[in-house]
From TrEMBL:
Keywords: Oxidoreductase. Gene3D superfamilies: NAD(P)-binding Rossmann-like Domain. GO terms for molecular function: oxidoreductase activity, acting on the CH-OH group of donors, NAD or NADP as acceptor. The keyword Metal-binding does not apply. It holds the Pfam family adh_short_C2. This is Oxidoreductase. It comes from the Bacteria. The keyword Oxidoreductase applies. Signal peptide: none annotated. Belongs to the short-chain dehydrogenases/reductases (SDR) family. It comes from Parabacteroides merdae CL03T12C32.
Length: 201
């Protein structure tokens, strides 16, 4: 079994470039066991100022690559005489698939698409022993965690804002070989925020 690390730089919104990259990975490594679809951009602006090109750009980065990478893996597995009996795809969704704020149409649509695409792919790829699940993070602070205010943490039932490690651990859990009975699901990881009733006091 080959081990090591390779880095491939690619614009995921460019279909040809992304598919060529995937083929290069197959050529170098033979197969892909796990895909974490985590590419994403956002553009929050008033709907009257959001162009169709802005909307399309978000979907071309956030949503379409999920389909492209999954499709290419399915095609590769179909071509194998002895298919790999293991496969995991984890799509990074967002709690924005079910809750929004003004000016987030493109981002919300892309995450809603990922949510639905996940359970469709789970059925389509099952014949190649590939499970497909999604993770919907809430507030995950990736920059200045120490600069967060006490009230930022307090609004979460878990008592803190999320960290990237929270999502990474969930990916590891889903990708464990023994967790093959988890398929087509969306896991919300947001410290309980979407379960919290909010009233004006």
């Amino acid at each position: 079994m080959q081990t090591g690390t390779s880095f491939f730089h690619v614009d995921v919104s460019d279909q040809e470039a992304l598919e060529n990259c995937i083929q290069q990975i197959f050529k170098e490594w033979g197969d892909i066991d796990i895909i974490i679809n985590n590419a994403g951009i956002s553009c929050f602006s008033p709907i009257t100022e959001t162009g169709v090109e802005d909307f399309d750009r978000i979907l071309s980065v956030n949503l379409r690559p999920v389909f492209i990478t999954s499709r290419r893996l399915a095609i590769h597995r179909q071509s194998q005489e002895v298919p790999n009996p293991f496969g995991r795809i984890v799509n990074i969704c967002s709690t924005r698939y079910l809750m929004s704020e003004p000016g987030s149409e493109g981002y919300a649509a892309s995450k809603g698409g990922i949510y639905s695409l996940t359970h469709a792919l789970a059925l389509s790829l099952a014949q190649w022993h590939i499970t497909v699940n999604s993770i919907s993070p809430g507030w995950i602070e990736t920059r200045d965690y120490e600069q967060l205010r006490p009230e930022d943490h307090a609004q979460h039932p878990s008592g803190r804002v999320g960290k990237p490690e929270d999502i990474a651990r969930s990916c590891l859990f889903i990708c464990q070989e023994e967790n093959d009975f988890m398929n087509g699901e969306n896991v919300t990881i947001n410290g309980g925020m979407t379960k919290k009733m909010i009233y004006i006091e």
